[in-house]
Specification:
This protein is mainly alpha-helical. It contains 6 helices and 4 strands, in the order ββαααααββα. The protein has helices at residues 79-89, 101-122, 140-157, 192-211, 215-218, 237-264; strands spanning 72-73, 76-77, 221-224, 232-236. The mean pLDDT is 91.
Length: 269
């Protein structure tokens, strides 16, 4: 098997080349052109398709999970249609886009209630199952660890100004570039109860911020230029909080999906 590491292959031409079962990690295809290409059974995680054009394609049995904006299929922008259908299926989803302080408090209350139900469901499984990956995705425990990271980043650092709010179990997203001083260990398997205890602390941190939140404070901007992540300059405080709401909502949806797969006894790695 040929391996390519840290090489610039820009401008290369591949014709009648078999790349079946190949793995591409942190590879740039910006501006690439692909014709008569077979993507059957391809799996793509953490990719950007900004400005992509797909013409004369066949899409069948395709599953897409991601942020859709200006996605035009056969002349129809499907992104608003998808958003409207998701809102119809899950009415509380609309409340995850608040504009005032009271709306943020309401949204967080909904999330805590929903997550309490999800955690209760998860506790019905053997703990070993909660460390199992489903279809290559994060395990239930890893999901909780990632939410801890997101909360620490956008509330602990972004809103409260803590330069290094991390816990050793915090888990960045898989495609993150990595930063000095920020933990990132997907191999560790902490006990569920201890992860839940840490999560309760982080939830209380958000609850405390929202309890004293005012509309005037919500309209402020934050700047965090010290080493670490995220680095922000004139960044809307409202957006920091909205990111946390979105992370909590979407990852609960993924967790519920994967628990259902575990219940069916298939799809786990």
């Amino acid at each position: 098997m040929t391996e390519f590491h840290d090489q610039d292959l820009g401008g290369s031409r591949f014709e009648r080349v078999n790349l079946a079962d190949s793995h591409f990690t942190r590879v740039r295809f910006t501006g690439a052109e692909m014709r008569a290409t077979d993507f059957t059974d391809v799996r793509i995680d953490g990719a950007m398709f900004h400005g992509a054009r797909l013409r004369g394609v066949e899409l069948a049995g395709v599953r897409i999970d991601g942020d859709l904006r200006d996605v035009v299929v056969n002349g129809v922008d499907i992104a608003p249609l998808v958003e409207a259908e998701l809102d119809r299926r899950m009415p509380d989803r609309v409340r995850m886009r608040p504009d005032d302080a009271e709306g943020f408090r309401e949204a967080w209350s909904i999330l805590e209630r929903l997550w309490e139900e999800t955690v209760a469901r998860a506790k019905m499984f053997p703990e070993a199952d909660l460390h199992r990956s489903v279809d290559g995705e994060w395990s239930f425990v890893e999901t909780l660890r990632h939410l801890g990271f997101a909360t620490a980043a956008w509330v602990g650092r972004g809103v409260l100004g803590e330069s290094s709010p991390w816990h050793p179990w915090d888990l960045p997203w898989d495609q993150a570039p990595g930063w000095e001083g920020i933990p990132w260990d997907r191999r560790v398997r902490p006990p569920l109860d201890e992860v839940l205890a840490l999560r309760a602390e982080r939830q209380a941190m958000v609850r405390g911020v929202l309890a004293s939140l005012t509309d005037a404070r919500l309209a402020e901007e934050v700047t965090r230029t010290e080493p670490g992540w995220p680095r922000l300059e004139g960044f809307p405080l409202k957006t920091c909080l909205r990111i946390v709401l979105n992370e909590e909502w979407e990852h609960r949806r993924f967790a519920e999906r994967d628990l259902s797969i575990l219940e069916g006894g298939s799809g786990a790695d």
